[in-house]
Amino acid sequence: MLPHAERVDLDDPEITVHLELTPTEVRLLGEPIPGPGGLPLGVEGRAVVLLSGGFDSAVAAWQMQRRGVALDYVFCQLGGPTHQVGALRVAKLLAERWSYGERPRLFSIDFEPVVVQLQARTERRYWQVLLKRLMLRAAEQVARKRGALAIATGEAVGQVSSQTLQNLAVISRATQLLLLRPLVGCNKDEILAIARRIGTFETSKVVGEYCDLVPRRPATAARLEAVEALEAHLDPDLIDRAVERASVFDLRGLDLDGLAAPELMVDRILPGALLIDLRPRAQYQSWHHPDALHLEFQQALRAYGSFDRSRRYVLSCDLGLLSAHLAERRRKEGFEAFHLRGGTRALRELVGSSR
């Protein structure tokens, strides 16, 4: 072949042949399949990620692992047991698909008492910034316990009110640890594309949003002096107590089904119950149970005050997370509410078996 080799263009070849050479064999390989790349997990040490269960924090965690950082997760619970189960589903998926060789932990911290005091003692427009600073302080305590070198978050510049450049600067001052924001320059569509690629999209999309404490006119250019003055009104031991009571989950050994509240779950539509489908309108129009009433999650939250308390209600959503959360909330208000285990898949099976 030597005579022909003189005319080979090594800079721009017409055909590239991939070979693997060993002392005794030559293997002809097919087209390479690109992987995520990065560094071996753990070579860059350990960090903790503030995980909400939503798209951004899950993708941020994956980006950190791709760069060789072993992770534990800090989850600040604002929506009760259902919110916790949703975040655990996302964290377990990350652990099982992307954390080979590690046994990551999730530290679940009940932040509802923190929010109650925050709302009672500080100025409303600063709640978002104050909440994020308190979350960083909780994450720092967990990081020091775990020997972690940094805290990572899913924040991106300008995405929400607490993520203006000025607010991020004020939030960052809450911790002395290295603070990493791997998504800081990403657009939302880029984040969602990565979530689809790494497998977290479908799980994250049903985790409720609980951090939005100020839906109207939040502070977008908070001053550090003003924020620190408001923090002086809070109990200085508030975060210490919350972290001490944290629940710790070994994600690899976690049985998610064992965490669900069995008294809220049903496997069928109970006699006389009103079935409420909480999915987005497009999904409902694509297919729905013939007897279902359609109310999207936020609509159902607003409408329940007018519902008949003497009736039973069975709630259904795509994966069973939003329906479980709403059933839990309605139970506390005196309604006989249940959620359908298995979501849309289970509902389809019920319709098929009744034919």
Structure explained in plain terms:
There is one protein chain. This protein has 355 residues and is of the alpha/beta class. It has two domains: 46-255, HUPs (Rossmann fold, 3-Layer(aba) Sandwich), CATH 3.40.50.620; 262-353, Rhodanese-like domain (Oxidized Rhodanese, domain 1, 3-Layer(aba) Sandwich). 39% of the residues lie in helices and 15% in strands. The protein has 14 helices and 13 strands. The strands form three sheets. Strands 7-6-3-4-5-8 form a six-stranded mixed sheet, with helices on both faces. A five-stranded parallel sheet has the order 9-13-12-10-11. Strand 10, helix 11 and strand 11 form a beta-alpha-beta unit. Helix 5 (127-146) packs across helix 6. The radius of gyration is 25 Å and the shape is globular. The N and C termini lie far apart (70 Å).
Write the layout of secondary structure elements.
Layout: H1 2-5, E1 18-21, E2 26-29, E3 46-50, H2 55-66, E4 70-77, H3 80-98, E5 105-110, H4 112-121, H5 127-146, E6 150-152, H6 165-172, E7 178-180, H7 188-198, H8 201-204, H9 224-231, H10 238-244, E8 247-250, E9 265-266, E10 274-277, H11 281-286, E11 293-294, H12 297-303, E12 312-316, H13 321-332, E13 336-340, H14 343-353
Parallel strand pairs: 3-4, 3-6, 4-5, 6-7, 9-13, 10-11, 10-12, 12-13
Antiparallel strand pairs: 1-2, 5-8
Which key features would you list for this structure?
single chain; 355 residues; alpha/beta; Rossmann fold; Oxidized Rhodanese, domain 1; 2 domains; globular
Short précis:
Helices cover 39% and strands 15% of the residues. By secondary structure, it is an alpha/beta fold. The protein has 2 domains: 46-255, 3-Layer(aba) Sandwich (Rossmann fold), CATH 3.40.50.620; 262-353, Rhodanese-like domain (Oxidized Rhodanese, domain 1), CATH 3.40.250.10.
